[in-house]
Design brief:
Layout lengths: L1 H7 L8 E7 L6 E7 L2 E7 L8 H14 L7 E2 L8 E3 L2 E7 L4 E2 L6 H17 L18 H14 L9 H9 L2 H11 L5 E3 L8 E4 L5 E4 L6 E3 L1 H12 L17 H15 L5 H27 L12 H20 L4
Antiparallel strand pairs: 1-2, 2-3, 3-6, 4-6, 5-6, 7-9, 8-11, 9-10
The structure holds 2-acetamido-2-deoxy-1-O-phosphono-alpha-D-glucopyranose and magnesium ion (MG).
């Protein structure tokens, strides 16, 4: 907490600190809720083990905030004029807490619609932004072939001696590799790159406590080039079923057509005009692509001994893998390109 207290001094935040409290969310960065002079802020330490070129994150953030400021919380610049301040391996940033906002966990159909509307607004706002101006802060981030290579490597090395305990999940990852081929087909057919959020899950949208309406998009570290199906896919992955990624009780879940249509249609109502025919066609498949990629990444980290994601106990990445594989099983017949 002491470090967070020091970090606030790097920014132009006037007044006495009333309180600082760590916030438990997120797999990657450290977040703190801070009150200064009655004003609420979100203070974050960037995980530079994950974002190894923080200057890319700074440049992307600066560019996207000026591109569509109305979509994001107000970020404060620090003493040197940048959004990230501090030493290279200890970088901090601060943004205003959005008043009377929340990010829903149990998602009603109305909330699904507002979140999809929010990411739809994002897609529409960035339709003419140049993807080549937003560098990839994590090389190969949403490249499934790269993720499958990392998985193969983790499997061969088996450094944490966990492969045996994950044999069913390993087999499932291998059996679903056709998803990578389907995606390659889409790219070959001319799927265009655009600027994407690349972490478009439910928790990264803020809604109004008063009206329930969409307010802001948050967690902007991975805004860079991608395909429209990535963001719609992440929404399907995180919002079709009302379960957190660590949920172990997966019986009785079923694909709900109404939730699916709500997400897709609310998104398209905002940005359908901005998308090409091939993108429109590819969107449902995004659910399979993103869910499969997350299953692969969680399992890779489990096999590597939990070196990437924050975990609270040794099986957590395996639990997350099973959870994503279950979603994949439940959605494959509905979201496959041939269905
Ligand atoms: C990570 O930052 P956070 O925890 O929202 C991850 C995303 C995953 C997500 C799964 C930089 O996001 O790719 O979709 O977990 N971010 C990074 O919940 O790896
Ligand atoms: Mg994120």
């Amino acid at each position: 907490m002491q470090v967070a207290q020091e970090a606030i001094k790097l920014f132009n935040v006037q007044g006495a600190i009333d309180s600082i409290a760590p916030l438990g969310f997120g797999h990657i960065n450290d977040s703190f809720s801070v009150k200064v002079n009655g004003h609420g802020y979100l203070l974050q330490r960037l995980n530079t083990n994950v974002f190894r070129q923080p200057e890319i994150i700074e440049e992307n953030l600066s560019r996207l905030l000026s591109h569509a400021p109305e979509l994001f919380p107000l970020h404060l610049r620090g003493a040197s004029g940048k959004y990230h301040e501090g030493k290279t391996d200890n970088l901090w940033r601060i943004q205003e807490f959005v008043q009377d906002s929340y990010s829903p966990t149990e998602l009603t159909v109305q909330e699904l619609s507002e979140i999809a509307k929010g990411y739809g607004k994002f897609t529409a706002a960035f339709k003419n932004a140049r993807p080549d101006q937003y560098a990839e802060g994590i090389p190969g981030f949403h490249n499934l072939h790269h993720r499958l290579n990392q998985f193969q490597q983790a499997l061969e090395t088996n450094s944490a001696a966990r492969a045996e305990s994950a044999s069913n999940e390993i087999r499932a990852i291998e059996e679903y590799s056709w998803i990578a081929d389907q995606f390659d087909n889409l790219v070959e057919q001319g799927l265009p790159l655009r600027v994407c959020h690349n972490d478009a899950k439910a928790g990264n949208c803020l809604l109004s406590k008063k009206t329930g309406e969409f307010l802001k998009v948050v967690d902007l570290d991975t805004v860079w080039s991608g395909y429209a199906l990535f963001d719609l896919g992440d929404m399907l992955r995180s919002m079709l079923f009302n379960i957190p990624e660590y949920e172990v009780q997966l019986d009785g879940l079923r694909f709900d057509q109404k939730r699916f249509e709500t997400i897709l249609n609310s998104f398209l109502a905002q940005c359908g005009d901005a998308l090409e025919e091939i993108e429109l066609k590819s969107l449902p498949f995004g659910g399979l692509y993103m869910t499969y990629m997350m299953a692969t990444r969680f399992l890779t980290d489990y096999l590597n001994g939990d070196i990437y994601y924050k975990t609270g106990y040794p099986e957590e990445n395996l639990i997350r893998t099973r959870n994503q594989l279950k979603i994949l099983d439940l959605t494959r017949d509905f979201l496959s390109p041939h269905s």
